């Protein structure tokens, strides 16, 4: 999908959606950005959305190959424009692995929105064993957490209601897919530790503090590393949003967060002066946790 400004513009975002979601996830921020001279382009990852292979699981390397193809295509068609990658949730995990492994991408910056940076297997080893076993025995078995695990993904009830009826959104993933996303997050966690020690690209990270989907403590553990602390507020800008949920860009206050992205891209102000970006580690550590595994 493509949200293109009707006036001249100099910046393009390639957005990578989250688990079970698809490109329509960026409709709300896409409209806002297009009205503010920033183009947003998104596509359905393999195994998701409108693809014929919807429901299948693909390796991290496959997603990287597709993202690189799209970045190069966008840059070729827009050689004078600045290109940014935005990854949301699982898309953020895919993106962090991408920028750690590929140092010469034709991009001007990276935006990570509620990234699924989570060493699940390491921190939940006993819980991970049954899923790994059953995903091998019954890979195509579809499961639903409805009625079992209740989480609040956003305060935008209208959007959530529409999503619950959206046939392009995956409501019942397979066991193979669930195991796949866990493996992907495990990989991305290791890539995140490496990348934050030696960031190559200008990077913006936005974390919703009422996130009930992705726990905060794994990310806190990374930020507590002394080699990483020196990079925060330098090449890496990290923001904490106390009233935001996992679907932060689609929350009722989502346009306020998208505005911060727009200002960061257009360099209209020093993002570090924003209250949400001051002493973020202390904010992360001292604000109430909402995830069951925090």
Brief digest:
The protein is an alpha/beta fold and 294 residues long. It is built from eleven helices and seven strands. A seven-stranded mixed beta sheet has the order 1-3-2-4-5-6-7, with helices on both faces.
Keywords for this entry:
single chain, 294 residues, alpha/beta, Rossmann fold, seven-stranded mixed β-sheet, 40% helix, globular
Helix content: 25-40%
Q: Could you say what the CATH topology is called?
A: Rossmann fold
Mean pLDDT: 93
Largest sheet: 7 strands, mixed
Query: How many domains would you count in the coordinates?
Result: 1
Assembly context of the chains: single chain
Judging from the principal axes of the Cα atoms, what is the shape?
Answer: globular
Order of helices and strands: EEHEHEHEHHHHEHHEHH
Sheet with the most strands: spatial strand order: 1-3-2-4-5-6-7
Uncertain stretches: none
CATH superfamily: Alpha/Beta hydrolase fold, catalytic domain
As a whole number of angstroms, the C-alpha radius of gyration is 18 Å
Assess the beta-strand content as a share of residues: 5-15%
Straight-line distance between termini:
35 Å
